[in-house]
Amino acid sequence: MTIILPEDSSEPLYRQVRNALERAMRNGQFDTVPLPSSRSLAEELGVSRNTVNLAYQEMVAEGLIVAEERVGYRANSAILNEKPVEGDSLLRETRVDWAQRLKRRLDEDLPIIKKDYNWQAYPYPFIYGQVSNSLFPITAWNRALRTSMEYPHVHWSLKDGGSGDDPLLVEQLRTTVLATRGIRATPEEVLVTVGAQHGLFLTARALLRPDDEVAIENPGYPDVAHILAGAGAKLVPVPVDGDGLRVDRIPSSARMVSVTPSHQFPTNVSLSKPRREALLASAHRHDWLILEDDYDAELRYVGRPAPALRAVDPERVIYVGSFSKFLAPGLRMGYVVAPKPLIEQLRLERRYTVRHPPGHIQRALALMILNGDYQRAQRKQRAALREKWELMAKTLKLAFGDSFKAPTGGTSMWVRLPDGVYADQVVAEAAKNGVLIESGASCFSANHPEAQRYIRIGYAAIPVESIVPGLSKLSKVIHEAGRTPNATSTILP
Ligand SMILES: Cc1ncc(COP(=O)(O)O)c(C=O)c1O
Questions:
Q1: Cβ atoms of 337 and 178 closer than 8 Å
Q2: Is residue 402 part of a domain?
Q3: How far is CA 124 from the centre of its chain?
Q4: Same domain, 309 and 393
Q5: Would you tell me how many other CB atoms lie within 10 Å of the CB of residue 348?
Q6: Which domain, by its residues, includes 409?
Q7: For 428-463, what is each residue's pLDDT tens digit?
Q8: What percentage of the chain exceeds 90 in pLDDT?
Q9: For residue 320, what is the DSSP state?
Q10: Contact, 246 vs 214, CB < 8 A?
Q11: CA 468 to chain centre
Q12: What are phi and psi of 202, to 5 degrees?
């Protein structure tokens, strides 16, 4: 409780108390808790209880507070909001025209991904981009957090790192995480970020000039489109097929190509070998930079993953990685691997925004990798996801027949709806049945004719035992939607 009386005022003391309380109520101090008892407030302010009681009586008479049995007094927010604040007319005269002050967002016309962050309320949360709490290595993480607060690690957990990173994490990234992707990097070529999205943002800011053409996947990751457009780029949506990005459709005038080669977002197809080779060769020929978003490379369940594009071309590939899909998105940990001059600039961009990702989290993650807990958790999580992936693939194949092709990895399945059935309607109807899925519409460029043809079904967060009953409910919804095509016409794109 912070009630402050004026240092010097000629007003009677009880009025000073009353005004101080009104100010505190207007600032929201008593929105959720009752006002203090007259005894404790009198003690805190060093005034008599009578003075406080007089102040309370006046506020009751004005309707500013109401007495509640066994609770005391509560702020009456209805009256507080109605009653003008002193000096309010002056405030009104000098009001800022925020609509006019705000800069126009260069990405304002792009589709926005819709997420229900209340996904845990659904019995069947086929949400993408969230993880199951039960699979997170909580004991190992707690141990790592605790050790990070002990000597000698505590220094790295608590210090202001300026524009630097935790050297232990950079070392573990280089020797363990990146090495498994075939990437060799010096410490000067690695930057730790607040998630992969931060890495994409810093890169766009450092490299793009107004109207630079950037090829993006279509369908693709809506947030990268926002990031690139926000940095002034002219987006060139390039189609995707069963082999990934159609490299032959990238204009030679592009300055940069944004791509998710391991598991294309949102289709999950892998960029085929001929396409990878064509992409790297064309990049060399036309001087494109490649922004490789390898956000979930670890999560592959059949065959061996292809090495990262950066492993093949460390000169013009900027590699962005994340711990969100495997560990947890709430940790906000990611990294960029790129040539030294770019990393130096990204470091400065980062310094003037977040300075650096929290030292404590960096050190804990480094310790987890160093002691092998990370690798153990990764194996466990991959096995659990693989089980879900198998179940999803089998059940969706039964429901959709040969038109459904299961991807080799990732944490979601991209499903083409039968003709005459529209994604937004299926999402809405499924939600009424407790099934949370996502419409694929926001992954397509604006007004794309296929925008309503796909849904995305994520399986990282949903418990394995809910998959089959959830998919069976979903399949009923889709079947019903197909039988009532007229009902869908209102939501056509
Ligand atoms: C394709 C893609 N790239 C990047 C990200 C961002 O990941 P992070 O949580 O590490 O910022 C996501 C998250 O959903 C993603 O799907």
A1: yes
A2: yes
A3: 21
A4: no
A5: 12
A6: 119-132+376-491
A7: 999 999 999 999 999 999 889 999 999 999 999 999
A8: 82
A9: E
A10: no
A11: 28
A12: -60, -40
Same domain, 144 and 56: no
What dihedral angle (degrees, nearest 10) is formed by the CA atoms of 421, 422, 425, 429? 40
Q: How far is the CA of 86 from the centre of ligand 1 (A)?
A: 48
Decide which of 337, 360, 375 is a domain's last residue: 375
Q: Kindly list the protein residues whose Cβ atom lies closer than 6 A to any atom of ligand 1.
A: 129, 195-197, 221, 260, 265, 293, 295, 322, 324, 329, 334
| Type of residue numbered 160 | D
Please indicate, yes or no, whether residues 367 and 409 belong to a single structural domain of this protein: no
Tokens 């796909």: give the residue: 454
The terminus-to-terminus CA distance of the chain in angstroms comes to 54
8-state DSSP, 402: G
- 317 and 182, same structural domain? yes
Whole-angstrom Cα distance, residue 381 to residue 417? Answer: 30
Distance CA 137, CA 381 (A): 9
- HSE, side-chain direction, 13 A CA sphere, residue 166: 27
Does 493 have pLDDT greater than 60? no
Q: With beta carbons less than 8 A apart as the criterion, state whether 228 and 214 touch.
A: yes
Cα of 145 from ligand 1 centre, angstroms: 24
Measured CA to CA, the distance from residue 138 to residue 377 in angstroms comes to: 10
**Are 306 and 391 in the same domain?**
no
How many structural domains are present in the chain? 3
Per-residue pLDDT tens digits for 460-482: 999 999 999 999 999 999 999 98
Q: Whose CA is nearest to atom 14 of ligand 1?
A: 129
Structure tokens at 369: 């990798």
Helices marked H in 320-463: 340-351, 359-370, 373-400, 423-432
* Rounded CA Rg of the chain: 28
What tokens does 20 get?
């101080």
CATH of the domain at 245: 3.40.640.10
Q: Which residue has the higher pLDDT, 299 or 359?
A: 359
